[in-house]
């Protein structure tokens, strides 16, 4: 049974949805130019942004070469259809004026390249939205997210490469993992590679492994991430930052599903699904020659855009409740907190929201579950000193208490993510994990 919750007090309703909903709709019709007659209907069943361009994955794909690969985006907005120029080479014009962002209404004409487009209001339309309020670990009840869920289910069942796009903190990695977990590969490994985290000279051995003696310091042979992810999914984060010299090698690995370790001479077969993410506009990277188009075609078989949190405000209260509960907040998050959060811009997106919730809980705002202190009150150091223990035992007690509180706090601040908590603590992941198990935290 889906959860029923209606919080009209915050102006946001997270009610198990009516499966059908009504939205406005607009047709974008090519009225002059090489693609005259082509049109695209933007309604509530479209992705949050519908792209115009000559790139292969644009919904409104045109052959006009004076239009950039991903030239502009259309999105339904209150009172009209919003057009946003995506830093195109030749610009987007409304009534002869170059625009970067404009609200269009019925009958308006947009010009780009050698083409003109007419915007036709197509009336209110009824569309179906998924009734789900989450997709695995990815939580979201806004129309923008519920529109995505059926596509995510289809992608999870398939084995095609996927590219997830979105600003930092929008949940790209969480979504990749959710797709993996909902896929037939769920029992296999989910392995993460961040293209920005490894020096360019080490990327090859990281991805494909190396043989003993392949380079100074290669004391033993080692499997690369492609092999480690065999039978599962390899998530390549920040794909747009992959060094150009590595791009043909990655293409070969993805096309043939075989890798050769650095310093090795045999090709090793792998069975690894690739999901990649980027905060960069890959079309622009391709257009500007920084990213190979053949690799782009191979990986962007399916493309998902995760809208920024400020573009799906309907999720703010829902996510706040989710994190509040997950991070140990007592009862419901305070009403004032929800109101304040709903007004904030969230440039750091969901990561920023999760951190804000954990700060509220950790810093003892209303409705916060009390931290279990050793005796329930007072300064832990004073309490241990008052026991008049021998020095080594007193020191161990205080250290244990410090470690316990430190680990708990940093884990809370980083949403339980051990890797990030270890980084923030400035200690190795392995040592941090030892601390976690010593303090009995998850
Ligand atoms: N829809 C969601 N529901 C629940 N938790 C989410 C959701 N989206 C993101 N998160 C959580 O927010 C944090 C940031 O998400 P994630 O790391 O997946 O973002 P990202 O887009 O990959 O960020 P970056 O581009 O910086 O790598 C994670 O702790 C993740 O679990």
TrEMBL record:
Keyword match ATP-binding: yes
Domain Sigma-54 factor interaction: 138-362
Residues covered by the FHA domain: 50-99
GO MF, one annotated term: ATP binding
Lineage: Bacteria, Pseudomonadati, Myxococcota, Polyangia, Polyangiales
Annotated InterPro entries: AAA+_ATPase, AAA_lid_NorR, FHA_dom, Homeodomain-like_sf, HTH_Fis, P-loop_NTPase, Sigma_54_int, Sigma_54_int_dom_ATP-bd_1
GO BP of this protein: regulation of DNA-templated transcription
Organism from which the protein derives: Labilithrix luteola
Pfam families: AAA_lid_14, FHA, HTH_8, Sigma54_activat
Keywords associated with the record: ATP-binding, DNA-binding, Nucleotide-binding, Transcription, Transcription regulation
Cytoplasm as UniProt keyword: no
Signal peptide: none
Source organism, top-level taxon: Bacteria
CDD domains documented for this protein: AAA, FHA
The name this protein goes by in its record: Response regulator of zinc sigma-54-dependent two-component system
């Amino acid at each position: 049974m889906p959860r029923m919750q209606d919080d009209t007090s915050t102006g946001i309703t997270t009610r198990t949805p009516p499966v059908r909903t009504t939205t406005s709709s607009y047709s974008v019709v090519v009225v002059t130019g090489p693609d005259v007659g082509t049109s695209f209907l933007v309604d509530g069943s479209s992705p949050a942004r519908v792209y115009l361009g000559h790139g292969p994955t644009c919904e409104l794909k045109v052959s006009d070469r004076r239009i950039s690969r991903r030239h502009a985006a259309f999105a339904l907005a209150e009172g009209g259809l919003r057009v946003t120029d995506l830093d195109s080479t030749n610009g987007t014009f409304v009534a002869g004026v170059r625009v970067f962002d404009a609200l269009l209404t019925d009958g308006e004409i947009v010009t780009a390249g050698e083409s003109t487009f007419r915007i036709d209001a197509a009336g209110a339309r009824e569309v179906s939205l998924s009734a789900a309020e989450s997709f695995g670990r990815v939580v979201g009840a806004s129309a923008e997210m519920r529109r995505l869920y059926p596509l995510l289910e289809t992608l999870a069942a398939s084995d095609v490469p996927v590219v997830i796009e979105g600003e930092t903190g929008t949940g790209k990695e969480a979504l990749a993992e959710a797709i993996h977990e909902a896929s037939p590969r769920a029992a296999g490994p989910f392995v993460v590679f961040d293209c920005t985290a490894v020096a360019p000279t080490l990327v090859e051995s990281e991805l494909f492994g190396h043989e003993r003696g392949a380079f100074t310091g290669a004391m033993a042979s080692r499997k690369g991430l492609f092999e480690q992810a065999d039978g599962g999914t390899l998530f390549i984060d920040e794909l747009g930052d992959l060094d150009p010299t590595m791009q043909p090698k990655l293409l070969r690995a993805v096309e043939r599903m075989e890798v050769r370790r650095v310093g090795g001479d045999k090709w090793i077969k792998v069975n690894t699904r690739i999901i990649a993410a980027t905060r960069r506009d890959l079309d622009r990277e391709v257009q500007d020659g920084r990213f190979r188009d053949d690799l782009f075609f191979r990986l962007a078989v399916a493309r998902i855009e995760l809208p920024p949190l400020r573009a799906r405000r309907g999720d703010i209260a829902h996510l706040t409740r989710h994190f509040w509960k997950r991070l140990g907040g007592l009862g419901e998050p305070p009403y004032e907190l929800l109101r304040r959060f709903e007004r904030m811009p969230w440039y750091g997106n969901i990561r920023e929201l999760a951190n804000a919730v954990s700060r509220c809980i950790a810093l003892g705002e209303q409705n916060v579950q009390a931290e279990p202190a050793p005796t329930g009150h007072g300064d832990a150091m004073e309490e241990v000193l008052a026991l008049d223990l021998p020095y080594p035992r007193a020191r161990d007690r205080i250290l244990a208490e410090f470690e316990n509180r430190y680990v708990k706090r940093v884990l809370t601040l980083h949403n339980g993510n051990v890797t990030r908590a270890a980084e923030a603590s400035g200690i190795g992941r392995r040592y941090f994990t030892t601390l976690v198990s010593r303090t009995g935290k998850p």
